[in-house]
Structure prediction request, 403 residues.
Amino acid sequence: MASGKQSLVDLTGLDTLRGLLAVFVVAHHARWLCWTGQAQWRMTEHTWLPSAIANVTAVFRYGHEAVMVFFALSGFFIHLRAAKQFAVERQCERLNVRRFTKRRLHRLAAPYFLVLFLTFVLDSIGRHSFPSLYVGDTGNALLDQNFSGGNYSARAVIPGLVMLPRSLGLTFGSNGPLWSLGYEVVYYAFYPLWLMVRRHSLWFAYLGIPFICFVIAGLSLGAWLPAVISHWPIWIAGAGLAEWLMLRNHQISRRGGGTQALPKRDVAHWRNRFCLYGLALTVVGFAGCQISQLPMAILLSYAVLGCGCVLSFCTLPTVIGGMKFFSAWQFLGFRSYTIYILHFPLLALMAAPYFQAGGPPSDGWFALAAAIATTLICVAVFELCERWFVHARIRVESRPEPT
Prediction:
């Protein structure tokens, strides 16, 4: 990179986003499993400070929206390399499907299968010692519905072993959040075909295919594969954002002298502008998720929300992105995959004794402690397994600085 110049897009901002999303999902599930709930909590009087804290935690209800942002983020990262080629050359080289598949498996498989094993171990302990939660006998209708749908029958285990959890309708044990990884695996499988379409027709790739997917969503078929396909436009939207940003980066750099790196003053101007665009899209997308009734409108809102979050974080002004606060979240972002796929069975085992005794505590301190403990355990498991399978950039950047 030329001295004094830098790129418009800063990928470390997306590592920050991944960390925030992963911890947000942990907090969402800790609030659900390890706290009696806001409605019941309000039945007794509290002083202003606990009331204020409880009201603030209401933001963690939106765990599903966080997963939708993960979809857009995945599409952005997977398509980024091709997006750079499209921006510069108006075309990209053919994808080496074998290399792409091998790279995805190398990145995802080992931590995933370790988590399946750990889920089985944790669930075995819980089912033997504190069975009420695991057999769906807590009296909480939503919890009982979710846990009764998970077991270790062939319909649950076989899809889990081929990295398509819940594809036959049952969850692998207690680990319900793995459903989104099954969606991602399908999107990875679709990507070579989608990229081939994109190489021949930008409009059909970004409008035709999503329209077909939205039509499938409108049919409300209910089966697993139609549900996966109906969410694919969110992933495609992330890929489209990557292309748009790389094209804008190339166009702006040509005005500044033809290099891919931009003068710092230009970077600051465009990052500020694009970050504001991203924040606006985030607000519009989130509002759409809450007020929309039609499945197509909800999915479109998810796509807007996801792209808004990705755009705002990858164009964070340098003065903000360089703060130590964001460095901490980048640390967790490097470890977000393990945090996401492992956290739920850990939280379930922590909550199970309370449900066996009648229910979780009414105050939220146990939920906070469980979320922190779960995150720390996941970080330790990352060091044991995932660290050795991450891509080179993450492996280098997540290594502690020498003292």
Observations:
- The mean pLDDT is 89.
- Strands lie at 5-6, 150-151, 171-172, 262-263.
- The chain has 18 helices and four strands.
